[in-house]
Design goal:
Elements: H1 14-18, H2 27-34, H3 54-61, H4 65-72, H5 80-93, H6 99-104, E1 111-116, H7 122-138, E2 141-146, H8 151-163, E3 169-171, H9 178-185, E4 190-193, E5 202-205, H10 209-222, E6 228-231, H11 238-253, E7 263-264, H12 270-283, E8 289-292, H13 295-307, E9 317-319, E10 336-338, H14 341-356, E11 369-371
Parallel strand pairs: 1-2, 1-3, 3-4, 4-5, 6-7, 6-8, 8-9
Antiparallel strand pairs: 10-11
Helix pairs in contact: 3-4, 3-5, 7-14, 10-11, 12-13
């Protein structure tokens, strides 16, 4: 009802009381008004989605509302014909399911949480794409959050994701304790990478970093190199520790003495590779090859060598680890260990889907492979 003039002042003006009562419109005018806006017809954009109910979808598709609900949350055991009918009704009516109502009703949110370490990481960024591909095909929506290699920040991410009622969580490596992950798995399915961990409702995917590092170092040894420097990763990372162990094992197997002076600290990014290589050159410790614990540090080391007038591979051979997309396109193309982030993301997502289906995941990461390109040569 329209608010009368001056109603906010607590009284009505005389002119309002004196006004003649509104006359009822003629039948002709009423009909013209009724026909001014024709009734809506069913179409994909005919109704605002906020006004379309689950009951309307059920009526249009010829099934019960409970069947529609079960189809939406993935628990229905019905014929493909009924599923197709519901899908058509949803599309025609413009129905948008309410995820909060679905969760409160005991269904799934069809969303999963993903705790990565850095959204802009060349390695983890590709892994996120692999995760997105698998979940998109399965009808799930991934929610991404960055832990920045900080256990407290990772826990905050998990708490936030749980508040969104996600159906499961993927943790890409990180620094959360094994006990924290086991505790989380008691509440919802968990997949974690970079760990060797077993627990109910938890699946761990661990790449063989030791073997990858052993292969990289053995390749340089087979080319005649004996003074092989190693740019290590952050020592708090299990994968960094394993790659150092693989480097040392290959030297020992070849009868080459391990020299601490040839091991430089790094932090898995390009700048740390530059600084490590510059420190190595300034130390005047003889070396003919560098094995960097990831491709990003190998890129940085190559830049440092270039700045100091050293050529790759004529003066120094370089091997990386990960096989990032840029490894095949840098100059010269980088010899590296293949550990594709895309495969990691796909495997992690597939494993979580298996857990959500109450299956025991069988997904495992492939073994490391040496990719030989132009950054290494015999001495």
């Amino acid at each position: 009802m329209r608010t009368p003039p001056d109603a906010s002042l607590g009284r009505l003006p005389p002119s309002y009381h004196a006004a003649a009562p509104a006359r009822r419109p003629s039948l002709k005018l009423a009909r013209a008004h009724d026909n001014a806006i024709p009734p809506m017809k069913s179409s994909k954009s005919a109704r605002p989605s906020s006004k379309v109910t689950l009951g309307m979808v059920a009526e249009a598709s010829g099934v019960s509302p409970s069947t529609v609900s079960r189809i939406l949350n993935g628990t229905a055991v019905v014929s493909q014909e009924k599923k197709d009918a519901v899908d058509r009704a949803i599309a025609e009516l413009g129905f948008v399911p309410n995820p909060i109502a679905r969760v409160l009703a005991g269904g799934r949110s069809l969303s999963v949480g993903v705790v990565t370490q850095a959204i802009d990481s060349p390695y983890y960024g590709v892994a996120l794409r692999g995760i997105e591909e698998v979940f998109d095909a399965a009808g799930f929506v991934p929610l991404f959050a960055s832990g920045h290699w900080n256990a407290k920040e990772e826990q905050r991410c998990i708490d936030t994701l749980r508040s969104r009622r996600v159906d499961g969580i993927i943790v890409l490596t990180g620094r959360l304790s094994d006990e924290s992950l086991r505790k989380l798995a008691k509440e919802l399915p968990v997949v974690v990478t970079g760990r060797s961990l077993k627990a109910p409702s938890l699946h761990a995917l661990n790449f063989n970093d030791f073997e990858g590092a052993r292969l990289a170092t053995h390749h340089l040894l087979s080319l005649g190199h004996r003074k092989i420097a190693f740019i290590a990763g952050d020592p708090v990372h299990p994968d960094a520790q394993e790659r150092l162990r693989g480097y040392r094992a290959a030297l020992e197997a070849a009868g080459v003495k391990y020299k601490p002076a040839l091991v430089l600290p790094g932090l898995f990014h390009e700048d740390s590779g530059v600084m490590a290589a510059e420190r190595l050159i300034d130390s005047r410790e003889p070396f003919t090859a560098i094995f960097a614990a990831n491709d990003q540090m190998a890129f940085g080391a190559s830049l440092a060598l270039y700045r100091r007038g050293l050529r790759v591979p004529e003066d120094v051979s370089i091997v990386g680890f990960d096989d990032l997309a840029g490894a095949a396109h840098c100059i010269p193309p980088l010899t590296t260990i293949h550990q594709a982030g895309l495969e990691l993301g796909r495997c992690a997502a597939q494993a979580l889907l298996e857990l959500l289906a109450d299956k025991t995941p069988t997904t495992q990461l492939p073994e490391p492979r040496l990719i030989i390109r132009s950054s290494t040569r015999a001495v």
